[in-house]
Amino acid sequence: MSDKKPTVQETFNAIAMAGDLKALESSLTQIDLFDGNEKTKLIDALETEFIEGFSEGLPSPQQMEMLLALSSMVGEGPDAEDAEMIQGCLLIADKILTEKGDKASPLVQKLIEKAAGLTDEEYNNPSALLKAAVEAASEAKAAAPKTTNPFRNRGNKGPNA
Q1: What is the largest CA-CA distance in the chain?
Q2: Of 13, 29, 60, 136, which has the highest C-beta tally within 10 A?
């Protein structure tokens, strides 16, 4: 095996292609080989691609409750593979939070806050893990700054005014 330092892209790819949590943990340690701008670029890319991408695929809290209720009726629901995917995102979020601290996105902070509140049993329960992730995403979205309406107070100056 070569002692050559991997590139930022190689490290990102190793994280993206990790086949299980053990491989992911190993890939995440490669981040510590970088410093300065390289490390910042890598952490920002992970935050954008994995954490934001992950949250976009989550149902709303209401949809999640309905899905869990339906899945319990038919005997199917989130499985161990789903739990491992969420646990992987949490490992990445934890690394981002460790590196960025308060500058991490509210979503990263909420994910780790919710994960920290889980018992070992809940952490290994796919439904509880999914619920925590959905709650974190929902709370982060609700806390996001809202865009100011630039058209407010302009009055009705349309063609029929």
Answers
A1: 76
A2: 136
